TrEMBL record:
This is Peptidase family m28. GO terms for molecular function: metalloexopeptidase activity. Keywords: Signal. One of its GO terms (biological process) is proteolysis. It holds the Pfam family Peptidase_M28. Gene3D superfamilies: Zn peptidases.
Length: 358
């Protein structure tokens, strides 16, 4: 995730919709949404593998990057999917440094719906981590030899969520189909450039499916912080409180621009109906370099309604974009509740067709 509220002023504030909610639990098993204990175990396993066993993973650490790709693909295969590795070449630009001209890979799987005419939903997150730069908020200026982040929360938590949602919906029929994607190159210096993996994917899938055949997209982005932390980074973005993102850790945020406002609010309402975890929905106007949280920006550029599901990252935790973004910092119980809520929200959104009695 890239910091953007640092440059957002009061003129960008459009709408805030705080919502409280209640939880319904369901048993594990094929055709069901698992309970939070089962989700915790799986989510924790993914994050420890990505952030602890593999560690910093990006085009500046090619072996670790390949290990992350292989891990994600193997997980998808274990669920019965056949992942497609969609390769693309990073442009030869000075700002990309040693990654210039290298090959990056997006990973995609699809779970078709029961109605071939129904529009698709895209759920995607980035697997790359922040490279070593001078400051946590820098957008370029790679420092050779400087250690980057292991990326437990940003964005191992997002990838783990995508994997578990893919597992859940593998045997949970819905009227609409789902495209699950794991992206390369979200972090600087690739953010909001032609080398950003989600932008490449957005262009390809809009061309293939057509914009009218895509209902929307959401990205799980930094989902693991729900306990009070010392937070000095938030002081640089106090406007966030007035935007409806208070200095507390007791909610998950659905963040969008105007393009995704209605879709985000609809999803927030569905989340509210299914989950006890509080959600806050906030939308901001999009200006040239305005508010964009993560890979949702790429689909917004193509006119696809999109939003980020996030714990608000640097607005909540000083571990954001630091070497301290490690697996033991994740609040797994609350994190699992959020992922379970996303599964139930998604099922409602896509008009699930039950195959067994809940």
């Amino acid at each position: 995730m890239k910091r953007n509220l640092l440059t957002a002023g009061f003129s960008t504030l459009l709408a805030v919709l705080p919502i409280a909610c209640t939880q319904l639990f369901q048993p594990c098993g094929s055709g069901h949404i698992p309970d939070t204990q089962a989700l915790q175990k799986n989510l924790k396993g993914h994050i420890y593998t990505l952030a602890d066993t593999i560690g910093e993973r990006n085009l500046y650490h090619e072996e670790a990057n390949r290990q992350a790709i292989d891990y994600i693909c193997n997980e998808f295969r274990s669920m019965g999917y056949e992942p497609e590795q969609q390769a693309f070449t990073v442009g030869k630009e000075d700002r990309f440094g040693p990654a210039s001209g290298k090959t990056a890979v997006n990973i995609e799987v699809r779970r078709p719906g029961t109605d071939p005419k129904a529009p698709w939903l895209i759920i995607g997150a980035h697997y790359d981590t922040r490279a070593g730069m001078k400051n946590w908020h820098d957008t370029n200026g790679l420092i050779p030899g400087k250690t980057g982040t292991p990326g437990a929360n940003d964005n191992g938590s997002g990838i783990a969520a995508v994997l578990e949602l893919a597992r859940i919906f593998r045997h949970l029929p819905t009227r609409s189909g789902i495209v699950f994607v794991c992206y390369a190159n979200e972090e600087p210096p690739f953010f909001q450039t032609e080398a950003m993996g989600s932008l490449v994917h957005a262009g390809r899938i809009v061309k293939e499916l057509g914009k009218n055949n895509i209902m929307g997209m959401y990205t799980p982005e930094t989902l693991g912080c729900y306990s009070p932390r010392v937070n000095k980074k938030r002081k640089t973005a106090m406007v966030a409180g007035m935007a409806g993102l208070p200095d507390r850790c007791d909610y998950v945020a659905f963040m969008s621009t105007n393009t995704g406002r209605d879709f985000s609010r609809r999803c927030a309402s569905l989340f509210t109906e299914q989950c006890r975890f509080p959600v806050r929905s906030a939308a901001f106007p999009y200006y040239t370099k305005g508010v964009a949280w993560s890979d949702d920006w790429s689909y917004m550029k193509y006119g696809i309604p999109s939003f980020a599901v996030t714990d608000t990252a640097y607005l909540r935790s000083d571990d954001y974009h630091e070497t301290s973004d490690t697996p033991e910092k994740i609040d797994y119980r609350e994190y699992a509740e959020v992922v379970q809520g996303l599964a139930k929200m998604t099922r409602k959104l896509l008009e699930a067709v039950p195959t067994t009695k809940d």
